[in-house]
């Protein structure tokens, strides 16, 4: 994007877009307000007129990312099949697609929780809300599969596989962690249907 195109965007949007790119790419703690101001081309007062603090900017970044990521994720999962069991397995195909993208740097929510380390930080709450929303999506799919017995337990187990695959893919640069998690998910689904 050219400088003139960037300057045409509303100030709040420029700040948030710049902060989002930097926070995800370099880490929340590694990026200061002065850097965001410089790269977004806004005045310090403009930033503080839109976000009362860096913490408020972090929370807004995470809540916006949650909305965008989940819209993308749910759409990709649902477009692959209308059958809930296949959609549950497709969770991992979509994860692998994400892991193989050139800008993959793990989960912004897991990363933020580790970096912030304060469970009372508004960013941590946004991360927990994201996790709950992903769990709710998985749980909905689990409840739509006929013949499953332990829907809540199975949804929690699948969430663990999703999160574990994300962490392994990021830490080890191993996109096939999603395929390995998918194999484990298939075993869990089959075992629960047989009970």
Give an overview in words.
The chain is mostly helical and 195 residues long. 78% of the residues lie in helices and 0% in strands. α2 (11-26) crosses α5. The longest helix has 27 residues, at 54-80. The radius of gyration is 19 Å and the shape is elongated. The termini are far apart. The relative contact order is 0.11.
Topology:
Blueprint: H1 3-8, H2 11-26, H3 33-40, H4 44-50, H5 54-80, H6 84-99, H7 108-116, H8 122-144, H9 151-172, H10 177-194
The largest pleated sheet is described as: none
Secondary structure tally, helices? 10
Total domain units: 2
How many runs of DSSP E, i.e. beta strands?
0
Distance between the termini: 55 Å
CATH homologous superfamily (4th level) name of the largest domain: Tetracycline Repressor, domain 2
Uncertain segments are none
The CATH topology label of the largest domain is Tetracycline Repressor, domain 2
Tell me the radius of gyration: 19 Å
Strand content: under 5%
Following the backbone from N to C, one meets helices and strands in this order, namely HHHHHHHHHH
What is the level-2 CATH architecture name of the largest domain?
Orthogonal Bundle
CATH class category name of the largest domain: Mainly Alpha
Structural class: mainly alpha
Q: Helicity, in percent?
A: over 70%
The average pLDDT score comes to 93
């Amino acid at each position: 994007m050219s400088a003139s195109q960037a300057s045409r965007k509303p100030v709040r949007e420029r700040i948030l877009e710049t902060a989002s790119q930097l926070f995800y790419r370099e880490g929340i703690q590694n990026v200061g307000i002065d850097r965001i101001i410089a790269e977004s081309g806004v005045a310090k007062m403009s930033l503080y007129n839109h976000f009362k603090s860096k913490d408020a900017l972090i929370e807004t970044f995470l809540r916006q990312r949650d909305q965008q990521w989940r819209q993308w994720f749910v759409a990709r999962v649902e477009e692959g099949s209308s059958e809930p069991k296949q959609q549950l397995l497709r969770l991992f195909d979509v994860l692998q697609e994400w892991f193989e993208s050139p800008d993959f740097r793990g989960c912004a929510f897991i990363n933020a929780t580790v970096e912030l380390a304060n469970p009372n930080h508004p960013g941590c709450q946004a991360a927990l809300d994201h996790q709950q929303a992903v769990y709710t999506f998985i749980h909905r799919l689990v409840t739509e599969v006929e013949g499953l017995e332990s829907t809540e337990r199975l949804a929690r187990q699948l969430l663990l596989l999703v999160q574990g695959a994300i962490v392994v893919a990021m830490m080890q640069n191993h996109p096939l962690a999603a395929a390995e998690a998918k194999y484990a998910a298939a075993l869990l689904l089959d075992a629960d249907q047989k009970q």
